[in-house]
Amino acid sequence: MKTLARSGELHGFEIAHSIQSSSQGVLQIEEGSLYPALQRMLIKGWVTARWGTTAGNRRARYYQLTAAGRKQLVMEMSQFERVIGAIARVIEAN
Amino acid sequence: MERNVAMNWLQELARRLKMLIHRRQFDAYLKEEMRLHLDLLQEEKLKFGVNAAYAKVAARRQFGNETALLEKSHLALGWEWLENLLQDANYGVRAMLRSPGITVVALLSLALGIGANTAIFSLIDAVMLRSLPVKDPSRLVLFGNGLDWGISDGFPNTLLYSYPFYREVQKRNQVFSEVAAAFSMPDRVHGFVEGQSEAEAMNVQLVSGTYFPLLGVEAVLGRTLSEEDDQTEGGPPVAMISYAWWAGSLARDPAVLNRKLKIGPTIFSIVGVAPPEFFGTKVGESPDIWIPLSLQKEIPPGWNGYDDQMFESLHLMARLKPGVTITEANANANLLFQQILRGFSKAPLSQENLNKLDKTHVDLNSMATGFSRLRWQFSEPLKVLMVVVGLVLLIACANIANLLLVRSTARARELAIRQALGAGRARLIRQLLTESLVLALTGGALGILFASVASRFLVRIISGHRNTLRLDTPIDTHLLVFSLGVTLATALLFGALPAFRATGFHLSGSLKDGRGQGSSSSKGRLARALVVSQVALSLVLLVGAGLFVRSLMNLIHIDTGFNKENVIRMHIDASSAGYPEDDRLMRMYRAVEDRVRSLPGVRAASFAGFTFNEGTWNNSIWVQGYLDGHRDQDVHHNAVGTGYFTAMGIPILAGRPFGPEDTTNSPKVGVIGETMARTMFPSGSPLGRHYGRGGPEHADDIEVIGVAKDVKYNSLDEDQQPGDYLPYSQNPRYLDDFAVRHSGDSATIASAVRQAIHEVDPALPVSEVMTMDQVVTGSIINQRLVAQLSGFFGVLALFLTCIGIYGLMSYTVARRTSEIGLRMALGAERSNVVWLVVRESLWLVGLGLAIGVPAALAGNQLVASMLYGLRANDSLSLVAGVGLLLAVAALAGYLPARRASLVDPMGSLRYE
Fold first, then answer.
1. How close does chain B come to A93, measured CA to CA in Å?
2. Which 3-state string (H, E, C) describes B824-877?
3. Does A35 contact B69 at a Cβ distance shorter than 8 Å?
């Protein structure tokens, strides 16, 4: 979601790549697991999808974040930061 | 915020639904996306210069398992439960088709069981439960119970009221927002739709102007009757018609408000059409036409009760004011009742009557579901039948549970394999239950189909000889909810036990041995318990049916006093044809009698006030010389022609019947029944003695000239009651009945008689032509209904039980083949083997009977009041039931036993 928020409209491959490059290869996920997650977000109404054409002139589905998705992102980020902060504090305390 | 959450949820559901509907597209899109992703990955790898095959594998590794991802995406949709359900249902259908024998038996018993329940419930719903189709029916109350009908001058009367009484209550009460009155019986007249020459039977309901406003019923066309229509006697002749009558007799004429009706001498304008669901306030009597009470004198027979304080003929109903409870209303109604009656100038306010009045209370009853004699007459039989069909359904459930149990044994291996492969027990139970549900739903659908036919048939039985009862039993939501509930309960009932049983085995054991020896003994115990309960329930049903059938036989063999063979009876509506109640009427009666008597095949013909089961005309009589001892003796009167005793086959035991010598001017005479002779003329012969009606001063009015055999008046099971006959020549009045004794075919005679009547006067409406036999049969329809249906269901229960025993024994024999083979190899005779199996089935039945006999005896006590001429613990019914069950059990056990005895010892041993 974060990726989509940053880059606007992307298709699945681009999203996967974007995640990998921005994590500098630390996050090696099974790229396919992106798709069930995207379907979940479609149902929740956090993203929308439309068909477009890639640079290589192939049909691809482009995903875009919706307003609801943005709101969700903000919520999850703050949640995430709180958890990370808590973990960091626990580690530092030791 | 709340709303937002709900909105989001709804939108999400909409998206889920959309995706479910476009699932193919969803899949195709996903696959295309994944393919693109894979391709791009592969291209990327190729750029690094690896070979094509490696690139493909590497891309796949990086992407993950495509099929698994696709499935995971499906889970995101959240429809997997539905998919599972459909899959299970599909599997269930296939399982049903795989064993058609079991399926057919199961479906048939389910359809009959659920159908019978639905049909009986539809009647109960129509007769007892359904609310009146009016505004806020729960605020409506009825004065009295609505069971009495007719015209009375009794004092004080809490069931029927006069028109002036209605007006006083309306004026003086403080608890009702509106009061209305309706004539207590429908007026069946013959009238004309203007412009048509054929007279038509019409059911007229006289109502007060407040009737429709009280109920809050609006006309679908025109207007309803209103208070303005009911202001002055003989006021504007207006009529409102029912929707059904508009649709039938007027062919939905849109210009209906310009049409006129001619009833008697009066021409009525149609002012409105009632809504289709409105059938009146009395269940089972749907009027065709509503006419204001102010016009009662204008339609035949010309009642004259508009200002008569003691012409008690109305049912009174009222709507409670907001906030008033029925108890408060009752108090006010009783106060008014006392005040109004005491204020009536015409009321017979003797000291004795005033004492009676002091002790009299009016009961207000809720009118939410309308009121009806029908309910009073049929609620008990219907409840009994509901219990009966409920038990039948239970037996059917037990049967199907057994069948499924046997099948699940056969499937034990399959289920074990599935469990071994990782299917959860819950998942398997769910699947087995879904299969039961598929079975039950199919059976339920068939049952509803069956019920729609059966309920129409039942309504016809209940209607008996009357015009078909106007009772609606549509398949409505009420009913569907009921059937669905029954179906689901059934599925659970027969499906749950086998499902739990079938999945609760020890895996390894079942896998090792397909026949599931390990759990079969407990399975057998369950199956036996089911059969035992079937036997017990069947016995209850059979014994009950035996009682009802025997009770009916007793009723049928009661001596009616008249000879019901070879008599036809019809109604002739002289008042609608315009005859006044005087000499002209009597001359017409005589002319019709003479004309009909001259027909070939007719032995006698006579008009009469009543024949049988048509109500009575009661009066007090005073006997000469017994002024005080015999006052106020209620006696059934009947006005008849000279041929009546011959026509009805009532023997004259002493004296003579009426003859031509008994004329208007000759001394008044009467023929009395045996009971009247015995009770009112106890000493010596009654012939030549005198009695009279209307007061002690009339005690020598009528001379007794004959004594006739006692007859039944209204019902076969009534006690013998005193009654007399008077010649109509001396008692001019409308006589609706015409009885004809004939030889030969009754239908031929009936049409010849009808023709002869119309030769005398073509305008005379003739209706309800029946044989006396049909009339008598019609009077015991509810006993007949209960006897026939309980008999039918008893046999059905027996049959189902028979199947149950047969199934269990076949299963036992199949399971014990090797044991039987061994026994035979060791020298057991075939007869020993047969006995071995039959003994087991008899043992089961014995156990069932041991439970069933006390249950049947207890159940019978509940229906004791519905029996005639026998006690509830009637031993013949009990012995017959027990005998029948034993015989059937022996038969059902014998067939598998014979199969067992034909086992080839060597073959079965080798098989093991």
1. 39
2. HHCCCCHHHHHHHHHHHHHHHHHHHHHHHHHHHHHHHHHCHHHCCCCCCCCHHH
3. yes
Residue numbers of B between 36 and 55 with CB closer than 8 Å to A: 36-37, 39-41
CA B284 – CA B471 distance, rounded (Å): 5
Task: Kindly report, residue by residue over B804-853, the tens digit of the pLDDT.
Answer: 888 888 878 877 777 888 888 888 888 888 888 888 888 889 999 999 99
Phi, psi at residue B317, to the nearest 5°?
A: -135, 155
Best A15, A19, A29, A31 residue to mutate vs chain B (most B CBs within 10 Å) = A31
Q: Do A45 and B11 touch (CB under 8 A)?
A: yes
Cβ contacts of A11 on chain B, cutoff 8 Å: 33, 36
Nearest CA in chain B to A49: B29
* B443 closest CA partner among B404, B401, B488: B488
Residue B216 Cα to chain centre, angstroms: 28
Q: Give residue-wise pLDDT tens across range A25-71.
A: 676 667 888 888 888 888 888 888 888 888 778 888 888 888 888 88
Q: What are the residue ranges in chain B where pLDDT is below 70?
A: 1-3, 373-374, 462-476, 504-523, 626-633, 908-912
Q: Please name the residue of chain B whose CA is at the shortest distance from the CA of residue A54.
A: B36
Mutate to test the interface with B, among A20, A30, A35, A62 (most CBs of B within 10 A): A35
**Buried b / exposed e across B67-78, counting CB within 10 Å, b at 16+?**
eebbebbbebbe
Report d(CA B22, CA B14) in Å as an integer: 12
CA-based max dimension of chain A:
55
With CA atoms as reference, the chain B residue closest to A40 would be B76
Given the DSSP bridges, would you call strands B669-673 and B702-708 parallel, antiparallel or unpaired? Answer: parallel
On whether any CB of chain A is under 8 Å from the CB of B355, the answer is: no
- List, in sequence order, every beta strand (DSSP E) within chain A: 10-11, 47-53, 59-65
Domain residue limits at A68: 2-93
Torsions phi, psi of B415, nearest 5? -65, -40
Q: Do A33 and B64 touch (CB under 8 A)?
A: yes
Residue A2 has pLDDT above 80, yes or no: no
Across B37-175, the runs of DSSP E, i.e. the strands, are 140-143
Burial (Cβ within 10 Å: 0-12, 13-18, ≥19) of residue B656: middle
A68 contacts on B by Cβ (under 8 Å): 8
| Distance between CA atoms of residues B787 and B658, nearest Å | 41
Please tell me the distance from the alpha carbon of residue B423 to that of residue B414, in angstroms, as a whole number: 11
Structure ipTM over 0.90, yes or no: no
| Residue type, position B891, single letter | L
**What whole-number distance in Å separates Cα of residue B321 and Cα of residue B438?**
51
Specify the number of domains making up chain A: 1
Which residues are within 8 A (CB) of A38 and not within 5 positions of it... i.e. 6 or more apart?
A: A12, A47, A49, A63
Strand ranges for B650-710 from DSSP E: 652-655, 669-673, 690-693, 702-708
- List the single residue in B with minimal CA-CA distance to A63: B33
CATH number for the domain spanning A19: value is 1.10.10.10
pTM exceeds 0.95: no
Backbone angles phi, psi at A29, to 5 degrees: -100, 160
Inspect the interface and report whether the beta carbons of B73 and A36 lie closer than 8 Å. yes
Tokens 């019923």: give the residue: B217
